[in-house]
Q: What sequence folds into this?
């Protein structure tokens, strides 16, 4: 019912999805059984992507993690480009953040129904190099909204440093949305001193997204700065990757509308 009454100029329908390179994982045993697909191509790759593209339709902006820019394992298919075409998104952007020779070109990015005015690549600190955040700026009636897409480290200390780095990089942005696989539960985010100081808000109820076959943890998140209202949030029951997609409807701060 909420979806029928949302004003499209005052709301953003967002999704964040760790797609695990389009590798279907239905139980823990398939991590090993299908591990070869992280470096070797599958003749079913495009067939496997068709349900993903169908699921992604209908949002304003989708943040994607664990994609690929086109390598041996994907038969040279750029997954962001492929999904944008088949899910009917006019705009997309991909950032390659780690390369394993010709076998894999790790990437993350966005699919968007609206043009983005600026893209800023932010290298993140950490013991293992390659983590990054991408700051997209979406024009609105007054200024812009900074939308940050990231995939944080597995270690708690590195994650804390990375979150602080992101907040510092967006100090000049009044309105910020942070999206991605943050590799931590909501309690860690709520306790992070820099996030708390900036006033980042999480949905009231967790959307358990991991592992997809028996979701017990929420590690895929959408956070917003004060002024936004989180209308609804839920994990989409789409068990393809080892993560479920998380969908959030956001009402824009008072006085701000999206261009027609």
A:
């Amino acid at each position: 019912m909420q979806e029928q009454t949302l004003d499209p100029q005052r709301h953003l329908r967002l999704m964040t999805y760790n797609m695990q390179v389009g590798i279907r994982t239905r139980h823990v045993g398939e991590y090993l059984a299908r591990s070869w697909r992280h470096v070797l191509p599958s003749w079913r790759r495009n067939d496997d992507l068709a349900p993903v593209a169908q699921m992604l339709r209908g949002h304003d902006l989708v943040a994607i993690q664990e994609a690929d820019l086109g390598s041996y394992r994907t038969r040279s298919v750029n997954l962001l480009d492929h999904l944008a075409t088949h899910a009917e998104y006019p705009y997309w952007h991909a950032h390659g953040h780690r390369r394993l020779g010709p076998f894999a070109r790790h990437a993350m990015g966005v699919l968007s129904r609206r043009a983005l005015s600026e893209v800023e690549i932010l290298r993140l600190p950490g013991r293992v190099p390659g983590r990054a955040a991408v700051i997209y700026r979406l024009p609105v009636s007054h200024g812009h909204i900074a939308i940050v897409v990231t995939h944080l480290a597995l270690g708690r200390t590195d994650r804390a440093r990375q979150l602080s780095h992101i907040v510092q990089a967006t100090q000049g942005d009044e309105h910020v949305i942070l999206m991605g696989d943050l590799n931590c539960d909501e309690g860690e985010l709520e306790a992070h001193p820099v996030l708390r100081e900036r006033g980042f808000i999480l949905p009231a109820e967790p959307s358990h997204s991991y592992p997809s076959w028996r979701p017990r943890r929420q590690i895929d998140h959408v956070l917003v700065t004060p002024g936004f209202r989180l209308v609804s949030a839920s994990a989409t029951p789409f068990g393809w990757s080892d993560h479920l997609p998380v969908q959030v409807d956001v009402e824009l701060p008072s006085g701000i509308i999206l261009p027609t």
Remarks:
- Residues 116-229 form a domain with the Deoxyribonuclease I; Chain A fold (CATH 3.60.10.10).
- The chain is about 20% helix and 30% strand.
